[in-house]
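Hi L., both proteins are below.
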Amino acid sequence: MAEVIKMPRLSDTMEEGVVAKWLKQKGDKIEEGDILAEIETDKATMEFESFYEGTLLHIGIEEGETAPVDTLLAIVGEEGEDISSLLDGKADAPKEDSKSETEEKPEASSDSDSSEDDAEGGEIPEGVEVVRMPRLSDTMEEGTVASWIKKEGDEVEEGDILAEIETDKATMEFESFYSGTLLYVGIQEGETAPVDAVLAIIGPKGTDVSSIVKSGGASKPAASKSTEEKKEEKPEASKETSQEATASDGSRIFASPLAKKMADDLGIDLSQVKGSGENNRIVKKDIENYKTSGKAAEAKPAAAAQPLQQAQPSQVQAYTPAGEESFEEVKNSQMRKTIAKRLAESKYNAPHYYLTIEVDMASAMANRKQINEIPDVKVSFNDLVIKASAMALRKHPKVNSQWTGDTTKIAKHIHMGVAVAVEEGLVVPVLKYADQMSLTQIGGQVRELAGKARNKKLQPQEMEGSTFTVSNLGMFGITEFTSIINQPNSAILSVGAIVEKPVVRNGQIVVGNTMKLTLACDHRTVDGATGAQFLETLKTYIENPVTMLA
C-alpha cells in the first residue's frame, strides 16, 4: 500500500521548507533509512530519510521549490501502484470539471443570447473616456478626493486639473489626459476609493453614460472593427490637437500644465526632457533639472540666452546626477524569513530598554595572555564574557527569565545562546549549563558550534533552550551597539570592541583599554535596577577574572 510522505517539521520554528536536493529520483527503489532529500529549514539544511520501503512513485515538490509543513512531499509504494486517489483528488477533478462545464454550456449560451442587447449597451461610445483613480505613489492602494476643480457639465481640456487627490503620502493635483465634457463624477469630495475605481467619465456633451456607470466602466469584449480603427487614429488626432505635447516620432508626451508653461518660457523642447512622474509625466522638477544641466541654454535662441549670461556671469553650473536606477531581487531564504519574523515579533511585543557600561580590560587582557601560554589552550575575550555572564546570572536570576503572560518563568539552569553570523543571516547555537563549564570548555564548544553553523550542519536541538544570549561584534571594530532580544529570553548582551584610550588610574591619566557592554532588557520581566545590578556584577567578574573562581 502506498505511503504519503509530507514536508516534515525539522525544527520547532519551521513553518515551511525548501527542497535543496533530491537524492532519490522517481522510480528509484527506497529502503527504510535511505536519505530521500536535503531540506532547507529556517535554521539549517538537513538530510531527510524515508521511514518506508518501496518505489518512489511521485515527487510533490521539485528542487528549489518552497512549501509549507505537511504539504505532499512524495509517495512511496509498490511499483506500478495506482496513486491517483492519493493526489488530493487531482485525478478525479478534471472529469468532474469537464462534466459540469458540459452541463453549464447550454445555459451559458442562452445567457449570452439573452444578454446580447446588454453587451451592446455596455460598450463605451465613441469619444468617451473613463478616468480611473490613479496610482500617484508607489505604495498607494486607495485615494481620497480632497476637492473637485471641475464639476459635472464643465468643459475639460487636456492638461486641465480635474481634482485634488489625497494619497498615502501627499495631496496632489490630478490632471486630465482627455478633452471633452465632464459627464460623470464617480467619487464625491471626501470619499475614498481604491486605485482603478471609476473617478470620472469625459466625453462629448449630452452623451448617455448610464450603461458605463452600471458596468463599472468596463467595456464588453465585443468591440467592433470600427472601434479598433478609431483607437489607431487617436495618436494622430492628438498630434493635430497639440503639437506641444507630441514628440517628433508621433508619441504622446505627458507634462503638467506648470511644466508646459516653464518649458515654453525657457524655450525647452519637451521631447528632450525625461519625465520622472507617473507614466513618465514631466513635472516642474524635471524642467528645473533640465535647465540647470545647461541643455536649456542650447535650446533657447542665442538672443534670449545672452542677457541671462550677462546678468549672471559668475553662476556655477549645478551638479545633475546621471545614471540608471536599478535593483537586484534576491529570493529570501527560509532562514532570512524566520529571522525577520522572529525579530519583528520580539521588537513589537517586548518593551526594550538599554543599559550600557564601560569595562576596564587591563586585568582581563593580562589573565588571558597567561592562560593562552598553556600548551593547546586558546581562550578568547568572548569566552571570558560568556563565562562572566553565566556567573552573573547565578546572582541575578530575574535576568534569566521568560515572560509568559500570566506568569514569569525564572530558569534555574543557565543555557547561553551565542549569536553566530552566517552567510544567510544569524543563528544562535546554545551552550547548555554554561555556568558549570571552564573557559577552555566554553572556547572549544563555541568554535565547534560556530563551525557547524557556517557549514549548515547544526541540529535543531543545538539551537534550542537558550535562557540568555550574547552577541559580539567587537571583532568587526564596532565599539557599541544594541541588539534585539532573542525571544523568549528576557535580555541580550551586546559586546563591543576593546579600545585603547586615555583612562584615569590613581588620579593619573594613562593609556588603558576599555570595552563597552550594552544590555537590552525586556521591561516586563527585568526592571532597570535589576539590569543595572547584573551589569555591575558582570563588570566585576570581567575586570577581575580571578573572582569567577571564588
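That was the first. Here is the second:
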Amino acid sequence: MKYSINQLLDIPKLQVILDSLYEVSGIPSAIIDLEGKILTGSGWQDICTKFHRGNPTTEKFCIESDQEITSGLQDQQRHVQITCPLGLTDTATPLVIEGEHLANIFTGQLFLQPPDRQRFRLQAEKYGFEEASYLLAIDRVPVISQDKLDQNLSFIANLTELLAIQGLTQLRSLEVQECLRESEERVQQIIASAQEGIIVYDCGLRFQVWNRYMEEMSGFSAQQVLGRLPQEVFPMLERSGVVERLRRVLAGHGVDSAEVELQRPDLPRSIWHTDTLAPLKNADGEIVGVIATVRDITERKHTEEQLRQALKMESVGRLAGGVAHDFNNMLTVIMGQAQLAQMKITQGHPLWQPLEQIAIAAQRSSQITRQLLAFSRKEIIDPRPVDLNQLISEAQKTLLRLIEESITLHCHPGADLWAVKMDPSQVDQVLVNLAVNARDAMPDGGVLSIHTENLHLSQKSCQYLHDASPGDYVQLVVSDTGMGMSEEVLEHIFEPFYTTKGLGKGTGLGLATVYGIIRQNGGFINVYSEVGHGTSFKIYLPRSSSAAPAEAQRRCTDVRIGSGTVLLVEDNDMVRTVTMSYLEELGYRVIVADTPRDGIEICANRQNKIDLVLTDVIMPGMSGSDMVREIKVNFPEVKVLFMSGYTADLVARSGVVEEGMHFIQKPFDISTLSVKIEDTFLSDD
C-alpha cells in the first residue's frame, strides 16, 4: 500500500481514545507501525525501557518476545498474548486495512496476578538492577485479571475493525483524489506537450489556457497573456477578424478555420498560423468559453513562397535555356568577327571605334544571358576552394571604377578566413552586382563596406535566418549607407526583372543573379534594410573542406599563339567560320567538319595527325561526347576541348561536365579560346 497509516487514520484522535481507555481500564496500550515507529502511547511503564531493555542479557528475552509476537501476527491470529521469561505479559492485535497489515495495537506490560516480589529481588540481584528502584517500577505495573484483559482485547478487536472501515473509507477518498489529480496532470501534460497550440477563452474572451506550443510559436509566455483579452496582446487579431470570430462562437454560431498572420516581438518577420474554434460547454450544455486549436503554418507559407519563387526561376530558366544556344552562337559570331576585323586594322583606323563598340555590346549581351543562367542556376561553373579575401582584394580596382568618386570603399577582411568552394568568376559577379546596387542607392555619396568573417551557425540561430542550415560558414557582408528599402521592396528584390530604377536604367537581373549564384553554391543570403538608413546584404557560404591554394590562379587575357592541328567540329556555319579564323590567327592548322560523322572519318584517315579536337557538345545525329568516344578508341592520346551555348543541365546530360572534361562556354573571344586550348594541351588527361 502506497499510503501510510498516518494518512489513513486520525492518529491524534486515536491517542485521545486510548488515553480514555487507559483511564477506565488501567491497561497500557500503544500503536506501533511495522517499522517500529510509535504512533500513540497510553500508560506506558518504565520497567522494560529502563531495566529489561537496558541490560544486554535481559534484552535478549525482550527480543525473543518480540519475535514470538511478530510470528503470531504473521500467522494472521486475531491477537497474540505472551508472558516473557521475566514475568511480564504483553498482547498485540494487528491493524489491517483492505487486507494489508499496517500496524499493531499493543497492550502491556502488565501482570495477570500479583507479582512474586522475591522473584524480582532475585532478578535484580542476578542482572545487576538497583533493587529499590526496580521493585518500585514493578509496583507501578498494573495487575489485570485474564477476564478483564480479554474484555480489553475484545474492545481492541472491535476498535481495529472500525479503524479498518475508517481507513478504507479514507483510502478510497485518497485514491479518488489521486485519480483526479493524475487526470488533471495528464490533461495538463497533454496540453503542454501537444504539437499544436491550445487556447481556452472564458466567457469574457480572456485567455485562460496558453500551452507551451503557443509560448514557443508566439514568443509570449502564459504569464504574459493569461487573464488578458486577445486584442490587448495581439492588436492584429482585431484587424484580422479573429476577435469577431471568437464572439460568434461564444454566441453559438459556427465559424470556419482561418489563416492568420501574427507578429512576434522578437522576430523581424511575422509568423502564420491556422486556427479552429469550438465552443466550451459546462455540464449543463451552456457555452462558457471558446477552445481554439492553433497550428504554425509559417514553414508551409515559406515553402509555398519558395515554390512560387522556384516556378519563377524555372520559367526564367526555360526562357534562358530556350534562347541561350542560338543567342550565344550569334554572339560568338558578332564578337568574333568584330575582333577579327580589329586585328586587320590599327587602333587609329576610322572603323576601330565602331568595331570596339560592337565587341563591347556583344560582351555585355553575353553577360545578360549569363545573368539569366546564373539566376536559374544553369550556368556552367568551375567551383574550387578559394579565399574570399584574396578575390575581394583583386576586385577592388574594378569596384572603384564602378562606384562614384563620392562613395568611399572600405574593406574589412576577416582573420584566418576559411576557404569556400566557388567559381572565382561568380565571386566577381556577386561583388559587381552588389556594388552597382549600392552605388545606385547612394546618388549623393556615402560608404560602401565589404566585410568577411568565419561564422558557426547553431540550430537555434538558424531559426532567425531565412533559408539557413546549421554549420560552418564564411560570411560576406556588403553594406551601404544609402536610401535603404521599404518592406514591400524587400519582398521582391530577388525576383527576376524586378527593379525600382527608371525605364532603361536596369534589367532587374542584378540581385536575382546574386541570389541564384549564392543558392547554386549551397549558401543563403539575408537582407537588412531600413528606409533612410542603408542596406546590408549578409551572404553565408559553406566552409570548404579543402584549403584555398596559397597563390591565386593567374587570370590571363593575353592571346597565346600555339602550333599543331586542330579538328573543329561545329554544325553552325557562321560559328564554324569565325572559330576557324580564331584558330588560324592563333597559329593552328585547322581541319573542319560540320557533322560528328565527318569528324570521325577525318580522324580515321591516318594521314591527318590530329593534336586537338575542338567540338560542339550538342549536334544533330550525334553528340560531341559520343563522337569523341569513338575517336579515342583509335587515338586515345588526342586532346579534346568541348564548347557549347546550351545551359549547364543540357551539357551535363551529354556527359561533359560530369566527366570533368575541358569546356569553353559560348560566346568566347580569341584570348579566352587561346588560354583554354593551352590549358587543354598542358593537362595530364
